[in-house]
């Protein structure tokens, strides 16, 4: 059974991450999606998306696209030259979404289990 995530839970998570990065939220009567990004790499000038998510009932309605557009604009304002993120190779839906937005696969990491 899927766990119901309450609005309060989202806000607590976002407040925790807000101390380190910036949080963007899509809201229309309820939270539809969110994105947390770090845009503070003054040397490498690379912003990093640490979390992004759109509630299942809002997927396919361009919420993720709007969030990514906004955070890329924000990254430019903050002086960043690029935006990075990581996604599991098996997450085909996310890979296709990011590629459709213009992201490219630039490397792969092997995850070692202990």
Provide structural commentary:
Pfam families: Acetyltransf_1. Residues 1-114 form the N-acetyltransferase domain. This is Protein containing GCN5-related N-acetyltransferase domain protein. Keywords: Acyltransferase, Transferase. Helix content is 32%, strand content 23%. The chain is an alpha+beta fold and 114 residues long. Strands 1-2-3-4 form a 4-stranded mixed β-sheet, sandwiched between helices. Strand 1 and strand 2 form a beta hairpin. It starts with 6 loop residues before the first helix and ends in a 13-residue tail after the last helix. The relative contact order is 0.13. The mean pLDDT is 80.
